[in-house]
Design a protein that fits this description.
single chain; 334 residues; alpha/beta; eight-stranded mixed sheet; six-stranded mixed sheet; 10 helices; 23% strand; globular
Length: 334
């Protein structure tokens, strides 16, 4: 079976390795990886940007080994025609996208025989938009609509035909580490199986239903904690929103940014929140809790803690659902 060549458009993150490895595992090729340009572009030489550029190249080399993959930085002002000319040189069959900060125009997708496919971290058509994980947690809808969708790219945001989905369970949201691990595993499954099946004509997808679905954009109100929330919900918000954009408690005229929970103190007391020595005590619907407040030291501690945290692998627990399989594909799979 002939390999398929893809151009990936994504940021170098914890998901980059699983995505690229999943594609390569099937014997396919990566022609180019397009990453967002740096937000600050000085007129002269920049040590910081040179260091970041080297880090990106080293990470990419670690992900793809000795494969000849072109790394393209693409930032504002977006020159889509110029990017199209660069990508035309690699003769890719499909564009694979994840978390690119702007809508990719149809004119660029048309340069690829199989168009483009996108990985979206929610079960479409629910929670289209730029911040699905954050809004799923803030709205308490993570159990209903949490997961990852692979869909065809179209002229609109996240509204192309659905090709495959992996649904998450409550266990996938128990910590930041489990959420990242499950998301990476789901993306790897979809890009290693569903995306090649689509490119080879064995998977056609289904159109998304019409309707008024929630647009997943975070606003300041979604980061605020209230005494009407249960402890479990606030814990979930910290796991998903803790470092960025953060969670906040209103104390008088000021907002206090929260760290992680130290302990549960007992039942609600009806007393106002109390702030002292880098910690804040406050009521929630089902108990009074003590939280650390957020600062630079806590940020470093959280990152170090994440490095040594043990996360059970989601392998064997996640299930992928494909949409629009051909009868031929079903006979071959059986």
């Amino acid at each position: 079976m002939a390999p398929i060549t893809a151009a990936f458009v994504l940021e170098i993150s914890e998901y980059t390795g699983p995505l690229l490895a999943g594609w390569l595992d099937g014997g396919n090729r990566i022609g180019a990886v397009v990453v967002p340009g740096f937000p600050r572009r000085p007129a002269g030489f920049s040590i910081g940007n040179s260091r970041r550029r080297l880090q990106r190249k080293l990470l990419l080399r670690r992900f793809v080994g000795n494969a000849d993959v072109r790394l393209i930085e693409f930032g504002r002002p977006y020159d889509w025609e110029g990017l199209g000319r660069q990508l035309s040189e690699i003769n890719a069959d499909v564009l694979v996208c994840y978390a690119f900060p702007t809508l990719i125009p149809q004119s660029l997708l048309d340069r690829f025989p199989q168009g483009g496919v996108n990985l979206h971290p929610a079960l479409l058509p629910n929670y289209r938009g730029p911040h699905p994980f954050h809004r799923l947690a803030a709205d308490g809808q993570h159990a209903a609509h949490g997961g990852v969708t692979l869909h065809r790219m179209s002229a609109g945001f996240d509204d192309g035909d659905i090709l495959g989905q992996v649904r998450f369970s409550e266990a996938d949201w128990t910590s930041k580490q489990t959420l990242v691990a499950s998301s990476a595993a789901a993306m790897r499954m979809l890009v290693s199986e569903a995306a090649p099946a689509y490119c080879r004509g064995r998977l056609h997808g289904v159109p998304q239903p019409k309707g008024d679905f929630i647009w997943a954009r975070m606003e300041p109100v979604h980061t605020m904690i209230s005494s009407a929330m249960p402890i479990g919900h606030v814990t979930l918000l910290w796991h998903v929103l803790g470092l960025l954009p953060g969670i906040y408690l209103q104390m008088g005229e000021h907002k206090v940014r929260l760290g992680f929970q130290i302990k549960r103190l007992g039942p609600p007391t009806g007393h106002a929140p109390t702030l002292r020595w880098g910690a804040v005590e406050f009521d929630l619907a089902d108990g009074r809790v003590l939280y650390l407040t957020y600062n630079r030291l806590l940020k470093r501690l959280v990152k170090v803690r994440a490095m040594f945290a043990r996360t059970s692998s989601p392998k064997g627990r996640l299930e992928m659902r494909l949409y629009g399989e051909t009868k031929t594909a079903n006979r071959q799979d059986g």
